[in-house]
Structure formats: structure tokens, C-alpha cells
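Field log, afternoon session.

UNIT: design team B
ACTIVITY: writing a sequence onto a fixed backbone
BACKBONE:
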């Protein structure tokens, strides 16, 4: 069974039919300005927008689960998910070294 796209900010239980719908969800739920409701493309863009347009600093990504509500990750759709949170077994297989590290 092929896994569906899921929202890193909400958690893997929040799946979507395709990545376009996932990105739309992220813009509506996680990248929307709490002051003027403008929808931005990334969490960093939201933080920058709030600082420069409204002179307000936001410290958490809106509506994100604890631990994933911090700025510093620009996850858009399925791109940018930190390796430790990536649930795609094919991706992990490609990044896992096939030979052990040399001993020192």
C-alpha cells in the first residue's frame, strides 16, 4: 500500500489524497497570519510577514503539535520533513549506508 501525503505539523495521522490538498491545508491552518489572515507559503514567510507588516513576533507555528510548532523547519507539503520524522521506508533505505563506518 502506497502511503498518502501527511501533514508534518499535525502528525502522520492527518493524511491527504494528494500533495496539492496537503499544501492547501498547510497554508490555511499553519501558514495563515493570525492578524490579517493572509495565507503565506511557508512558516518562515509567516514569521517574516508578521514581523515586518504587523511589527509582531510570533514564536510558534499556528495549530501545530508540540515539538513541531517551532520555527526553523520549512516543511511544505512533504518536502523538508526532517529525516527522523520521515515515514517513507523507501527514502530511509536510500539514505541508510550499506557498509559499516570504518573503525578508527
Amino acid at each position: 500500500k502506497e502511503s498518502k501525503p501527511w501533514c508534518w505539523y499535525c502528525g502522520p495521522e492527518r493524511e491527504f489524497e494528494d500533495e496539492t490538498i496537503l499544501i492547501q491545508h498547510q497554508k490555511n491552518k499553519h501558514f495563515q497570519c493570525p492578524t490579517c489572515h493572509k495565507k503565506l507559503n511557508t512558516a518562515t514567510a509567516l514569521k517574516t510577514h508578521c514581523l515586518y507588516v504587523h511589527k509582531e513576533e510570533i514564536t510558534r507555528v499556528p495549530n501545530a503539535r508540540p515539538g513541531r510548532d517551532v520555527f526553523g523547519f520549512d516543511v511544505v507539503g512533504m518536502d523538508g520533513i526532517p529525516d527522523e520524522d520521515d515515514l517513507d521506508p523507501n527514502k530511509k533505505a536510500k539514505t541508510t549506508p550499506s557498509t559499516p563506518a570504518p573503525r578508527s
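LOG NOTE: The chain has three helices and two strands.
NEXT ACTIVITY: expression trials, pending approval
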